Amino acid sequence: MASEAPAAHLTDSRALGSLFASAEIRDVFTDRAMIQSWLDVEVALVRAQADLGIVPADDADTIAASALATEWDLNALATEIGRTAHPLVPVIRELAARSGDAGGWVHYGATTQDITDTGLVLQARAALDLTAALLRDLIGTLTGLARRHRDLPMIGRTHAQHALPITLGFKFAVLLAEAERHLQRLTQLRPRVLVAELGGAVGSMASFGPQGPELLHRMARHLDLGTPDIAWHTARDGFAELTCVLSMISATCGKIANEIRVLQRTEVAEIEEPFVLGKVGSSTMPHKRNPMLAEFVLSNAILTRQSPAAMLTAMLQEHERDMTVWGVEWSVLPETFILTGGLLERATRLLDGLIVHPEAIRRNLHRLGDLMLSEVAMMRLANELGKTEAHEVVYQAAMAAWESGRSLKDALLDDERVRAATDPAELDRLLVPESYLGSCASFVDQVLAGSAARQAEEDSGA
């Protein structure tokens, strides 16, 4: 039987990868894609040198025509990388050999990290574009849910206990606003992260002479990247920031999944992840409708939570070059992108097919009767008694209602101070959950308007 390459990571597993990874983003970080990104940088460098008359233009064209990773034997290249213990020298040698007489201009004056750093930036840009598109999909789904359930009252919970009424649309609008901020972060970090690297041996560009800064600018322009103010060989804050933002996006997806999982509990049953006949919850209990999709999202979010620690550690580099942490970035950044993309895909799928049970929501809203409206009573009594005394009065009544099973209204009316301040009819009007939703609807509208404005601005810019 032919040997099969082991799946060292879930994202590479043919059996389990579809539960965790974004296949589209994974394609950005294949070996061939990585080698091609390095070749693209080498080509941009030699074309910039041709622009400045350092390299003959015909030779630059020859090198560019030879820089196609699809035509290279990656197995042979991997063997050479292992033999030389160097990630780039075998690539340089192969490109030079394929370029014939023009090969002498390959990698002229650059250092390895110039190529690998800029190559990783090119991969990050492609992955960023895909991640932003997936985040917009999630935003679109949250927008629909916030609008659809804008006015559906439900119980709000604090400390995992019933608190005050909100609306289901308000809950989704909170998540929508968070997702919108993530999209802003992805946009804002691009100028800081998507920059070229060309510093030479120690970042001073000494090998390029006085043309160095202009050469960097032209190389960056060929790649449609920004030009940094100074070399960043050991300044890794850009990749660290990117990883932190990706992990924040993943955490939001995990929060969405956890909320669905908790609200799907049998004794709550307010919402449920998508279900179709054929989806199996248990191999031994056929009745189970387990939140499996939500649970895979949660486990995925746990994995990405570790990424910032590694990348922040990788910022601690020595002097003007430190290869000890290159492997950290080469491992963590692709993994975080791939897992975050998978999280976004699955969180959107969770919400796209979300099952809402309005009757269960209403039942739970009224589970405590009027007891959950203790704040309403307190604020009303504060007009006559002051906040401190009103809190104590309502607290005593609420605790009595808890113990006796009576309504809050009846317990309140046992107190002569309450009877002096209000009457049963007013309490009946006040202690209605559906009438104590605060500004939920206007907050939903505000978030929806902000999201729509951002979308319109993007559309006009496109």
TrEMBL record:
GO cellular component: cytosol
GO molecular function: (S)-2-(5-amino-1-(5-phospho-D-ribosyl)imidazole-4-carboxamido) succinate lyase (fumarate-forming) activity; N6-(1,2-dicarboxyethyl)AMP AMP-lyase (fumarate-forming) activity
A Pfam entry, by short name: Lyase_1
Domain Adenylosuccinate lyase C-terminal: 369-448
Keywords, comma-separated and alphabetical: Lyase
SMART domains listed in its UniProt record: ADSL_C (SM00998)
Gene3D superfamilies: Fumarase/aspartase (C-terminal domain), Fumarase/aspartase (Central domain)
Organism domain of life: Bacteria
PROSITE patterns per the UniProt record, alphabetical: FUMARATE_LYASES (PS00163)
GO biological process, one term: 'de novo' AMP biosynthetic process
Protein name (Swiss-Prot/TrEMBL): Adenylosuccinate lyase
Upper lineage: Bacteria, Bacillati, Actinomycetota, Actinomycetes, Pseudonocardiales
